[in-house]
TrEMBL record:
Keywords: Amino-acid biosynthesis, Decarboxylase, Lyase, Lysine biosynthesis, Pyridoxal phosphate
Protein name per its UniProtKB record: Diaminopimelate decarboxylase
Gene Ontology biological-process annotations: lysine biosynthetic process via diaminopimelate
Domain Orn/DAP/Arg decarboxylase 2 N-terminal intervals: 30-271
EC number in record: 4.1.1.20
Matches recorded under InterPro entries: Ala_racemase/Decarboxylase_C, DAP_deCOOHase_LysA, De-COase2_CS, De-COase2_N, Orn/DAP/Arg_de-COase, PLP-binding_barrel
Physiological role: Specifically catalyzes the decarboxylation of meso-diaminopimelate (meso-DAP) to L-lysine.
Modified positions (N6-(pyridoxal phosphate)lysine) in chain numbering: 52
Quaternary organization: Homodimer.
Gene name tied to this protein: lysA
PANTHER family registered for this protein in UniProt: DIAMINOPIMELATE DECARBOXYLASE (PTHR43727), GROUP IV DECARBOXYLASE (PTHR43727:SF2)
Pathway: Amino-acid biosynthesis; L-lysine biosynthesis via DAP pathway; L-lysine from DL-2,6-diaminopimelate: step 1/1
Protein family membership: Belongs to the Orn/Lys/Arg decarboxylase class-II family. LysA subfamily.
Reaction catalyzed: meso-2,6-diaminopimelate + H(+) = L-lysine + CO2
Length: 416
């Protein structure tokens, strides 16, 4: 979304719905989804959108309508998928710490697969399946031990990470699973990290996982699918990002002649560049060493700069008047880490509208109420139509869970 084409629209949206405001473009969601299904068409993959990137119900509903499956990491995300009309039968349950209640919920809902990350998790899923009298479909998440060459906080495929089963333990883990009565072993998966800008680790991971598929077949453990996770990066600034067609070609060569269904779990690359955050300039503050553009969005709305030192392009809607100057774009929160961008050149003044780009993924889904701020409203635009897809939170909503307790009396802790 470039401000020059859209400044009138963005200004109207901010005037109508207020700021801070997340704005998503439906055609960009569709295009990003189709980029995967087109590039990988020859392999007919199941694309499972990673809900944690952006779990807004209207966004999930849109992906469900396109035929997408879902990758979830909590019972809450499963509830979101179901509330949006998504298909549990196309939903994969990932994550290192699934609770018994979450496993039960997912088994009863009929999820496609549990992506299992440890032996104790296999045992827990077995126990719940026995209790419910069901068979649980499982895939083991194997850590291929390749360097994804991304930010340490979002790199997950190295030995030192908490994610997945160690490559060298993989065969033993499958044998363990095969000995459990109520598990149905159907696949294998990996996910080596996020915002990958290089194709080679993805291809190398696929190669290493396929070696295991062959070793398992030799032992009589036949898998139906291989899931390569998510992780393809997007352009925030001027990064080179992997070409999906090249990725698909490489995977097709590796899968050639095998009866393995391909699954993918992209998150960021389906939504990241379909969204922007609109924020209004409150004040310009000239510091002794730095200038600050103080805006009405903050780290509670968009945490990525504080958490990952992430870069989001920021522009003044309409270009701004007067001389450009260098400043940090900061929110009102009482934290030095509360910035949306540092050392940016902008022409703007109080009252101007700024657009923060590439804010569709890991942005609204990471929002919090820090400093008792209400979470932002979200809108989805489709051509010239606009729809509110999340109402701006109210202070009454924030206070409700605590107000209900204000008048309650302390009670002795009950014995169980
Ligand atoms: C976060 C995550 C994804 C999505 O990653 P992106 O980098 O957003 O594509 C996919 N699979 C798993 C298991 C994840 O944890």
């Amino acid at each position: 979304m470039t401000t020059h084409d859209n400044s009138t629209t963005l200004t109207k949206l901010a005037d109508t719905f207020g700021t801070p405001l997340y704005v998503y473009q439906q055609s960009a969601l569709t295009d990003a989804y189709r980029a995967y299904t087109d590039a990988f068409a020859a392999l007919n993959p199941l694309v499972c959108y990673a809900v944690k990137a952006n779990g807004n119900l209207s966004i999930l509903k849109h992906f469900a309508a396109l035929g997408s499956g879902f990758d979830i990491v909590s019972g809450g995300e499963l509830a979101r998928v179901l509330a949006a009309g998504g298909d549990a039968g196309k939903t994969i349950f990932s994550g290192v710490g699934k609770s018994e209640a979450e496993i039960e919920f997912a088994l009863n809902a009929g999820v496609l697969c549990f992506n299992v990350e440890s032996l104790p998790e296999l045992d827990r899923i077995q126990a719940v399946a026995v209790r419910l009298g069901k068979k649980a479909p499982v895939s083991l998440r194997i850590n291929p031990d390749v360097d994804a060459k991304t930010h340490p906080y979002i790199s997950t495929g190295l030995k030192a990470n908490k994610f997945g089963i160690a490559y060298t333990d993989a065969l033993a883990a499958y044998r363990h699973a095969a000995a459990l009565s109520h598990l149905n072993i159907i696949g294998i998966d990996c996910h080596i990290g996020s915002q990958l800008t290089d194709l080679s680790p993805l291809v190398e991971a696929c190669e290493r996982i396929l070696l295991l598929v062959d070793q398992l077949a030799a032992e009589g453990i036949m898998l139906k699918h291989i899931d390569l996770g998510g992780g393809v990066g997007i352009v925030y600034d001027n990064e080179e990002v992997p070409d999906l067609a090249a990725y698909a070609d490489a995977v097709a060569k590796l899968l050639d002649g095998r009866e393995l269904k391909l699954m993918l779990e992209p998150g960021r690359s389906l939504v990241g560049n379909a969204g922007v955050l609109l924020t209004r300039v409150e004040f310009i503050k000239q510091g002794e060493e730095k200038n600050f553009v103080i805006v009405d969005a903050a780290m509670n709305d968009l945490m990525r700069p504080a958490l990952y030192d992430a870069h989001h392009r920021i522009e003044t809607v309409g270009g701004g008047e007067g001389e450009a100057f260098t400043a940090d774009v900061v929110g009102p929160i009482c934290e030095t880490g509360d910035f949306l961008g540092q050392n940016r050149r902008l022409a703007c003044q109080a009252g101007d509208l700024l657009v923060v780009h590439s804010a569709g993924a890991y942005s609204s889904s990471m929002a919090s109420n820090y400093n008792a701020r209400n979470r932002a409203a979200e809108v989805l635009i489709n051509g010239s139509d606009v729809r509110l897809i999340r109402q701006r939170e109210t202070i009454e909503q924030q206070l409700a869970n605590e107000q209900a307790c204000l008048a309650s009396q302390p009670q002795p802790l009950a014995d169980n």
